[in-house]
Amino acid sequence: MTEVTDLTAGLDLPEQQAEPAGLLSDAIAGLELKPALEAVLMVVDEPATEEQLAKVLDRPRRAVGKALRELSDDYTREGRGFDLRLVAGGWRFYTRPDFAPAVEKFVLDGQHARLTQAALETLAVVAYRQPVSRSRVSAVRGVNCDGVMRTLLQRGLVVEGGTEPETGAILYRTTNYFLERMGLRSLDELPELAPFLPDAEAVEAESQEGIPSFDPDAPDEPSTLAKTDD
């Protein structure tokens, strides 16, 4: 049997670089504990236990627990707008109850803002033609609706609802939140608009199977009903 020769034998090769995990551990070991805890707790989406934090920061659990309690006391003494609490066995930042009105106004302000005429037109097309692709909505309105559709998605009024079999385009439909805001129990309660809409075949012909004749990436232009789109 032929022996396999080690081609690297006798060569003066440089030492392998340290593992990234080792470098990361060395960097963490040099961090000040309290600021490190603050940085980690800023990104958690659920309470982090002392064991988890101790493992991440390579510190004794007792030292981590002591630092967390000192931080919580510091925030309270300084009257900060946030608080560090031990909840459900873990630690997490919370806004202080005294400042709840400011937080509530910030969170709800965008939801209470009125929709533009362009957004209302786009929402109406989705409501009556759903599930419908973005290009078909643009064809019906005669302008690009990408920006407006993003606004409706962010407001929770429309949601992605599968893809179009023929083209793979994303389809959109209205949400339960839309029904709630409109005061409807179901889509069956939408007003009948047939007398005011063009024939379906005519719309499809003009839209060339739902593909707009303009550049989809071009800025939206004002229509006769909507001066600006979101």
UniProtKB/TrEMBL annotation:
Domain of life, source organism: Bacteria
Annotated stretches, region: Disordered: 198-230
Short name of any one Pfam family annotated for the protein: SMC_ScpB
Statement: the UniProt record of this protein carries the keyword Protein transport: no
SUPFAM superfamilies: Winged helix' DNA-binding domain (SSF46785)
The keyword Cell division is assigned to this record: yes
Keywords assigned by UniProt, alphabetized: Cell cycle, Cell division, Chromosome partition, Cytoplasm
Protein name: SMC-Scp complex subunit ScpB
Source species: Actinacidiphila epipremni
Organism phylogeny: Bacteria, Bacillati, Actinomycetota, Actinomycetes, Kitasatosporales
